[in-house]
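Exercise 7. Given the encoded structure of a 366-residue chain, write a plausible sequence.
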């Protein structure tokens, strides 16, 4: 079976290095917030050419703590998109804030800066923060989104859970806003062997606040300066992430090569292929094609041993927990109904791309 994500292949590709890192932690005797976490935070900050990284327990916490650190409090509104994983809205709700769902661009399926500007205007001053999601590894149009947010006094927290290493206009995703949230869930481009997350910020103040929030508000042990909680990254995950980080650019290059091959093989009327926005350099967390017969195509490929993902079948404003019957987002709803993610992870070979493409082209065009 060709899998849509393959964390085991990601382990096996670097097994000796990962086992050595794990042995080092086991022998070191320090298992939570120790030297490996500190080293990973430094190395991941350097990957952004500077700034600050604070390791936390998972990507949802990273979003929540980043939002709190830029000043979001209960009762605030936070603008985001609805074609994302529940985690994006869950982080907002955890604070007691409320998501405002903004329409996407029809071609890139990313937050529309114009729709954002309109939403910010309607809510005059009540939107405290904006969370663009760099979905499928493609960075949203950050200059326009940041401009719109700034014009209305809103902070920007980038959801980078799918975009480790992506760039817009040559500049790293995550460095455009006031803070960025990363997930290291095993299937992400930079994946741990369990849960993990991090907040990136260029400025020291946001990082300092997240550092307090992640451990009971402690700067000094047993002294809570502000109300905090437990959202710590452990040493084993940090040690594994240090190994994986060294290979991130190489693995992103593999994803790019596979995506380029899909684009070439699948050119034609069979499918709507992913559009890359001007200035965007995606890292292809997913290769998301669109079809009006998505579910049939998915079934047919499954029968040939090709597993495809649907990220995400139901937009957040149509889910029971976040239902907004009054909100109508035609492009978002269309995208969720049509999208199909083909295998593009680093374990996918050229021959796999050719086989998947051939099966799709054999499929009768509607
Ligand atoms: C994975 C993901 C998250 C959440 O990360 P967890 O580590 O699972 O909490 C948030 N946003 C997006 C877009 C994601 O893909």
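Solution.
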């Amino acid at each position: 079976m060709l899998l849509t994500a393959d964390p085991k292949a990601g382990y096996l590709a670097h097994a000796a290095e990962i086992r050595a890192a794990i042995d080092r932690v086991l022998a070191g005797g320090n298992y939570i917030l120790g030297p490996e976490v500190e080293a990973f935070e430094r190395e991941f900050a350097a990957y952004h050419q500077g700034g600050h990284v604070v390791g936390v327990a998972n990507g949802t916490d990273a979003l929540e703590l980043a939002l709190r650190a830029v000043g979001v409090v209960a009762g605030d509104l936070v603008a985001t998109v609805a074609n994302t994983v529940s985690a994006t809205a869950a982080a907002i709700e955890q604070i007691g804030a409320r998501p405002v769902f903004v329409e996407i661009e029809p071609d890139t399926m990313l937050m529309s800066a114009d729709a954002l500007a309109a939403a910010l205007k309607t809510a005059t001053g009540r939107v405290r923060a904006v969370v663009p999601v760099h979905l499928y590894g493609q960075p949203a149009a950050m200059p326009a989104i940041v401009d719109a947010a700034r014009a209305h006094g809103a902070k920007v927290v980038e959801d980078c859970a799918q975009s480790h290493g992506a760039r817009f206009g040559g500049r790293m995703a995550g460095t455009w806003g006031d803070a960025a949230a990363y997930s290291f869930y095993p299937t992400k481009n930079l994946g741990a062997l369990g849960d993990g997350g991090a907040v990136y910020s260029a400025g020291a103040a946001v990082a300092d606040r997240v550092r307090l929030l992640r451990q009971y508000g402690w700067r000094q042990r047993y002294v809570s300066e502000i109300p905090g909680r437990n959202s710590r990254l452990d040493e084993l995950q940090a040690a594994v992430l240090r190994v994986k980080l060294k290979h991130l650019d190489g693995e992103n290059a593999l994803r790019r090569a596979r995506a380029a091959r899909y684009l070439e093989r699948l050119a034609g009327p069979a499918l709507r292929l992913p559009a890359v926005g001007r200035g965007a350099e995606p890292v292809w967390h997913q290769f998301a094609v669109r079809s009006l017969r998505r579910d049939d195509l998915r079934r047919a490929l499954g029968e040939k041993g090709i597993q495809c993902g649907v990220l995400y079948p139901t937009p957040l404003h149509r889910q029971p927990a976040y239902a907004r019957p009054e909100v109508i987002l035609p492009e978002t709803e269309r995208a969720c109904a049509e999208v199909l993610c083909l295998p593009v992870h680093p374990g996918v070979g050229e021959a796999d791309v050719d086989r998947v493409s051939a099966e799709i082209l054999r499929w009768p065009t509607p």
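Remark. Residues 247-362 form a domain with the Aspartate Aminotransferase, domain 1 fold (CATH 3.90.1150.10). Students should compare their own answers with the one above.
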